[in-house]
Design a protein that fits this description.
Protein name: Xanthine dehydrogenase YagS FAD-binding subunit
CATH class of one domain: Alpha Beta
Organism: Actinocrispum wychmicini
Distance between the termini: 49 Å
Radius of gyration: 19 Å
Oligomer: single chain
CATH topology of one domain: Enolase-like, domain 1
Keywords: Oxidoreductase
Number of helices: 12
Helix content: 25-40%
GO molecular function: FAD binding; oxidoreductase activity
InterPro entries: CO_DH_flav_C, CO_DH_flav_C_dom_sf, Diverse_Substr_Oxidored, FAD-bd_PCMH, FAD-bd_PCMH-like_sf, FAD-bd_PCMH_sub1, FAD-bd_PCMH_sub2, Mopterin_DH_FAD-bd
Strand order of the largest sheet: 4-5-8-6-7
Strand content: 15-25%
Number of strands: 12
């Protein structure tokens, strides 16, 4: 780890008024600083900022500094969000990690985290050895010749499925962005991972009111049952009336370069019966456009099965 300066601004205005890298729970930033993947000269500890609170009065509003464990256990949080959080990392990390930081966490690609290896995301133009190297954990959707790394967040998948927005503030003002639009495909610039502008800070996560999202779930498939990143995951919310699907939300993770909304499956489900056969038919298009690599072609069939499993669980 390289030397750095640490300050702790007491107000949002003070935090936005000075250059530096924001530190909340530190469960991603500190790891990457130890590896010299990130080497900020100035770190701003923002834990004293008034960016907390969980409001379930009309939809869901979550302050960016709320800890993952507190959100997961809060009454009124949609089940898909709670389950995604509870299946993330370990209890100790969930007690530290903030929701804002979780949404900004970097990929767990081994090439990205090894400064002795080339990586377009870390060092633009250096190459992507994962394309032809060790790529079992990597993406099959949303990839490019420049990057095939998966997005690591579990809860981002659930939030994208539920049409969440994030509030952003900077010295020049405030704005709101749909989380689905916030994350960028790698294209030729995989180092630009999202739409966060220099000096900008996430202040709040907002999920619109969706009463039928009480029937929602998150399914995560991984190599071991705890403290492991997803090989594939699916967040599902279903509005079922008289044994038919009136509306649906489906997003997946562990298989794409960003949380991946499956609107084609949602369209296929609407108006149809809430049966296993209908779920299997709808999930048949889950991997459309997939580009499997040498070590992860199994994710194509795993993705379809995971979506079906989540739809069955979400329909109960």
């Amino acid at each position: 780890m390289r030397p750095f300066d640490l300050t702790a601004p007491a107000t949002v205005e003070a935090a936005l008024g000075q250059p530096g890298t924001f530190l909340a729970g530190g469960t991603t930033l500190v790891d990457l600083m130890k590896l010299n993947v990130m080497t900020p000269r100035h770190v701003l500890d923002i834990n004293d900022l008034p960016l907390r609170g969980i409001d379930t009065g009309d939809g869901l509003r979550i302050g960016a500094l709320e800890r993952m464990s507190d959100i997961a256990q809060h009454p009124g949080v949609y089940p898909a969000i709670s389950r995604a959080l509870l299946q993330s990392a370990s209890q100790q990390l969930r007690n530290m990690a903030s929701i804002g930081g979780n949404l900004l966490q970097r990929t767990r690609c081994g090439y990205f985290r090894d400064v002795n290896m080339p990586c377009n995301k870390r060092a633009p133009g250096s190459g992507c050895p994962a394309v032809s190297g060790a790529n079992r954990m990597h993406a099959v959707l949303g990839t490019s010749d420049s990057c095939v790394a998966t997005h690591a967040s579990d809860v981002a998948v659930a939030l994208v499925a539920l049409d969440a927005e994030i509030r952003l503030v900077s010295a020049s003002g405030q704005r709101t962005v749909r989380l689905a639009d916030f994350y960028r495909l790698p294209g030729d610039t995989p180092d630009v991972e999202n739409d966060l502008r220099p000096g900008e800070l996430i202040t709040e996560v907002v999920v619109p009111r969706l009463d039928w999202a009480r029937r929602s779930t998150y399914v995560k498939v991984r190599d071991r049952q705890s403290y492991e990143f997803a090989l594939c995951s699916a967040a599902v919310a279903l509005d079922i009336q008289d044994s038919r699907v009136v509306d649906a939300r489906v997003a997946v993770g562990g298989v794409a370069t960003r949380p991946w909304r499956l609107t084609a499956i949602e369209d296929a489900l609407r108006g149809g019966p809430a049966t296993v056969e209908a779920f299997e038919d709808a999930a048949a298009v889950a991997a459309d456009g997939a580009k499997p690599l040498s070590g992860n072609s199994f994710k194509v069939s795993l993705l379809k099965r995971t979506v079906v499993r989540a739809l069955i669980e979400g329909s109960r």
